[in-house]
Write a structure and sequence with these properties.
- Two copies of one chain form a homodimer.
- By secondary structure, chain A is an alpha/beta fold.
- Chain A folds into two domains: 3-173, Carbamate kinase (3-Layer(aba) Sandwich); 255-400, VC0802-like.
- Chain A has twelve helices and 18 strands.
- Chain A has helices at residues 16-31, 46-57, 63-87, 119-126, 152-163, 197-204, 213-222, 245-248, 275-285, 314-328, 356-366, 390-400, and strands at 3-8, 35-40, 92-95, 102-105, 112-116, 130-134, 137-140, 145-147, 168-173, 194-196, 226-230, 238-241, 254-270, 290-297, 302-310, 333-346, 374-377, 380-386.
- In chain A, the strands form three sheets. An eight-stranded mixed β-sheet of chain A has the order 3-6-2-1-9-11-12-10, sandwiched between helices. A six-stranded antiparallel β-sheet of chain A has the order 14-15-13-16-18-17.
- In chain A, helix 1 packs across helix 3.
- The longest helix of chain A is centred in the first third of the chain and has 25 residues, at 63-87.
- Chain A is globular.
- Chains A and B meet through helix 1, helix 2 and helix 3 of A and helix 1, helix 2 and helix 3 of B.
């Protein structure tokens, strides 16, 4: 008898019929002899509706009260899923974040899970009950209701799986698993049976947004093996786990693409300590998330920095940087460029293989695609290209590394 | 500086505009120098929508899960009211039933308030905050979320007022207060400045349904003075309090009417112990609420019982009683009669005044109205009349006791 923790997102419980469907899936798992804890999100649309009401009442609603308000979405769905299970003869019980013993820290609306006291859940499991646990929420030591921010339900599932020492944690979503590339772009993209935490993290930060990075980081830290799989069928998904020897025989695990990127370049930066920090602080204050950062020393001792960001942030970035740049130097200039995209090759195997970047650049060159910026990490090489070329670029790189074929 | 506990029902917080209006009312009270705790219900319609979803998923949804589900309605409204107050510069904080320290007992969906630990609320008051407290909910000692059933928010307000030793508890509703009779029927009905707990209880059980009896009983038990007043204007309402000497100078406080009643009479009941209990058990099992009970010994040692109930329950009562009656005796007969109504005179003063019933019956007789059943309690005389005559009956009795004029 295995203990399985599952996570169902807002789409999976988005209507009463879908809730019935989730109940049937849990019932099957139970009938195969497993213990089940299902972490569920708010019904699709509910959270947005609550946010809409809050914004109507206040331009900047109290974050403490936002937590009180938004946590009701998950509390409703756990009760409804438990009722649907009862109705088909499965003994089920709901637990809120508080009842699940999830203790959080940090400021309101952006909680972090500090610890889990699984006593109540262990009691219910011992009684043979299926547990439906509210995702996205916990309680601070001062008794305040606390939500976990974006991707919070994934985090709940992984933390609960860790606390209960579950066999596996299944993240059920609207994709089948993690692919070597986006199947809508690269027709022969292949579903990966297994990836390492680090590969998953690099893919998450480079466009393959199956999960938020922090949930993967949490799983890595506590060694929680999890599986990304579809809530619409019973196909095996992708197991995300500690890297092991066989994994390294593959140089590149996947090719991620990220569209709608923009680049900002600042020229003529005096080559003095603290200049980069000043610029980055400007952007942070304006809540612009930047991705790639490239910095070169150019002619006559003046530096130039380039950043990429989502195009939607470009206007905000420009507004924030203008006053900042005038202070830096009268020679500074701000150059912006939208319509670019990012291509990343990820694989733990590249650590022990030289020439990955060379092979990638060669493939792009052969396809007539010009490379803009380049950044590398230990297990990733990322480049920017013009957005209209991103699909050709992905296909060329996918092919050159033979990702359409399963490794032998 | 007075501490005022207010209760706003679902209609008062039924839209975002109404929530803004509630916030303004609380702000005024605060600016007059008062401390304020507002107990709020779920936004009108929310609870019904949640019940609808539960019923869609299950013919008999788990009551434990109903509590988890329904308690979200109040949790949403407290957050929204607190946000609306913040927005107009009032430092406000929401508390759920659990955070308010409300400990309950009893079975799910029908909780009773056992005790209140007001520590957290006292802390917030000491910090000068307005508290918005969820009505209708608490937590059992086993950590389960618990709702209080019908009228639960009134009960919360009165219990919170008691725990915090509030100056007064205001029950804000869609009526102006308690009247000598229904103003839609008796044009010169007068708003009462004050009634005793017992009178309020008798009126509640005889058609003047401003509040559920159990909230009034709770207030009486703990000596909580409360005021029923309108949430739409600032007129003073009706104070409900311990009876005192001046109150007794008035013989009759009010005349209540209750329409859509039905009568069931069972004849030919053997005059043996346990017969009445058997009949009442049948009705209780079928969840028929009966009101008046009259029992007479008729000819040749066979008894006859009559009950009144709401017409809507008549079919259920007949179905439940038929098999029961056949068992009692072959001579038993079931006689039903719909289209009747109940008229009640209530007043603590009638204890010390004889002839109240006589005066009332005389007035009805003079108006050509025939009396069906009669029951009396220490402070109430109730009769049934034909439903089409109830308005004339109310006006006649209201006039004979001079209720249109304030007592001198």
């Amino acid at each position: 008898m295995a203990l399985i923790v599952q996570k169902y997102g807002g789409t999976s419980v988005g209507s009463l019929d879908r809730i019935r469907n989730v109940a049937q899936r849990i019932k099957s798992l139970r009938e195969e002899g497993n213990q089940v804890v299902a972490v569920v999100s708010a019904m699709g649309g509910v959270t947005d509706k609550l946010i809409g009401m809050a914004k109507d009442l206040s331009s900047s609603p109290s974050e403490r009260e936002m937590d009180v308000l938004l946590s009701t979405g998950e509390q409703q769905s756990i009760a409804l899923v438990a009722m649907a299970l009862d109705e088909i003869g499965v003994d089920a019980v709901s637990v809120t974040g508080r009842q699940a013993g999830i203790v959080t820290t940090g400021s309101h609306t952006r909680g972090k899970i500090d610890s889990i006291d699984p006593k109540m859940m262990e009691g219910y499991l011992a009684e043979g009950k299926v547990i439906i646990c509210a995702g996205f929420q916990g309680v601070r030591v001062d008794g305040m209701i606390h939500t976990l921010g974006r991707g919070g339900s994934d985090l709940t599932a992984i933390a609960v799986a860790s606390a209960l020492k579950a066999e596996i944690c299944q993240i059920l979503t609207d994709v089948d698993g993690v692919y070597t590339s986006d199947p809508r772009v690269v027709k022969d993209a292949r579903k990966l049976p297994e990836v390492s935490y680090d590969e998953m993290l690099e893919m998450a930060s480079s466009g393959t947004k199956v999960m938020q990075s922090r949930s993967v980081e949490f799983a890595k830290k506590y060694g929680v093996v999890f599986e990304v799989r579809s809530s619409l069928n019973n196909n095996p998904g992708t197991i995300v786990t500690e890297e092991h020897d066989q994994m390294e025989s593959v140089v590149i695990r996947g090719v991620s693409i990220e569209r709608s990127q923009a680049r900002v370049t600042i020229t003529g930066i005096p080559d003095e300590p603290g200049m980069s920090a000043t610029i980055l602080m400007c952007l942070a204050d304006a809540e612009v998330n930047i991705d790639m950062i490239v910095s070169n020393i150019a002619y006559d001792g003046l530096a130039r920095h380039s950043f990429t960001m989502h195009s939607a942030d470009l206007g905000r970035a420009q507004a924030a940087l203008k006053p900042c740049i005038n202070e830096l130097s009268s020679d500074s200039e701000l150059i912006t460029e939208a319509g670019i995209a990012k291509l990343s090759c990820v694989g733990i195997g590249m650590r022990s293989h030289v020439g990955v970047a060379a092979k990638m650049f060669q493939a792009l060159g052969d396809a007539g695609i010009n490379i803009g910026m380049i950044t590398t990490s230990e297990i990733k090489v990322a480049v920017t290209v013009e957005e209209h070329q991103i699909e050709d670029a992905a296909r060329a790189v996918h092919a050159v590394f033979g990702l359409d074929k399963a490794p032998v």
